[in-house]
Amino acid sequence: MISQLPKWVEFGAFVLALVAGFVNAIGLISFEHQSVSHLSGTATLLGAGLLDSSLKHIIQLLGVLVSFVAGSSVAGFLLHGSTLKLGRHYDTALFLESLLLMIALVFLSQGSFYGSYFASAACGLQNALATTYSGAIIRTTHMTGIFTDLGIMVGAYCRGEELDTRKAKLFGFIITGFIGGGALGAFVFSLLEIYALVLPASVCLLIAVAYRVYSKQANSS
Questions:
Q1: Hey, how many other C-beta atoms are within 10 angstroms of the C-beta on 70?
Q2: Sequence-distant (≥ 6) Cβ neighbours of residue 203 within 8 angstroms
Q3: Taking a C-beta distance cutoff of 8 angstroms, is the pair 83, 9 a contact?
Q4: Residue 87: count of CB within 10 angstroms of its CB
Q5: Tell me: the pLDDT tens digits for 159-211?
Q6: 3-state secondary structure of 189
């Protein structure tokens, strides 16, 4: 599947992972220390909280889970097929992700937990976007699957199988992007606090505009 993806997909995966790492770092630092780019920890907190947490806290955690799924559903509605192809609504999905992050910023700047729902929806939309065109090989908002696949590759290589260097390179880009995004997010948050979300929202908007312009030029030529 990796061999069927265009050569620039590594750069795209790096940028999207950077955005997700950035947003999640801000979530862990500010949204009541709530992760928004992946759901394993949130689902665990929800399960554990059923025993002794307040109803309000349980509803908040459930809202983050539902929001992520809602964002993924939007991507599932917009995008059709499992191959990367010009003309599909990747730009629309990225426009919506940018909008969701800005809405999250508005709520969070007012101290409202509702902002975490919109941030989670943005991450769900982004992860579904990448998963749709890569056959679940590329995940940009969480690293568990990436590290698992990388471990499988290393084990197979030690057994004597040939190493898929392009897949290993792609995973390296994604891991570097997510960790780098986390570091950048923490740094920018230390300067701008919650308004740091403007940066990943702007990146998504710029990518969407660039894709739309490139797609139109390619179709007219």
A1: 16
A2: 15, 18, 19
A3: no
A4: 10
A5: 888 888 888 888 899 899 999 999 999 999 999 999 999 999 999 999 899 88
A6: helix
- Say if residue 119 is exposed, middle or buried (CB neighbours under 10 Å; 0-12, 13-18, 19+): buried
Are 38 and 53 spatial neighbours (Cβ–Cβ below 8 Å)?
Answer: no
Taking only the tens place, the pLDDT of each residue in 117-165 is 999 999 899 888 877 655 545 677 677 778 888 898 889 989 888 888 8
Cα–Cα distance for residue pair 78/92, rounded to 1 Å: 8
Give the pair of three-digit tokens for residue 206.
């710029």
pTM of the model: 0.86
Q: Which two tokens stand for residue 31?
A: 């949204």
Residue of 133, 93, 120, 137 whose CA lies nearest to 38: 120
Q: Give the chain's length.
A: 221
**Are 153 and 163 spatial neighbours (Cβ–Cβ below 8 Å)?**
yes
* Arithmetic mean of pLDDT over the chain: 84
Q: Residue 221 corresponds to which amino acid?
A: S
Structure tokens at 191: 């300067």
